[in-house]
Amino acid sequence: MFYDWGKKLIGYEYYDISFLKPDKNCSTCDIYNDYVCSHCEIETISGTPNVKYTDDLEWVIKKK
Ligand SMILES: [Zn+2]
Fold this sequence. Notes:
By secondary structure, the chain is α+β, with helices and mostly antiparallel strands. 12% of the residues lie in helices and 25% in strands.
């Protein structure tokens, strides 16, 4: 079960964020180790429709 600010999220599943790429202009990302910093991760994903960041710091998306 997923929670967003203590509220149960019904009908959500894990959102695959493996498509994320490190930002070469970001000093925290590491393009050599393919590491995306949490700032860029949140910047990139937060505008995606039906995607939420849970209390367990995982991305989930509403099932179709
Ligand atoms: Zn970054």
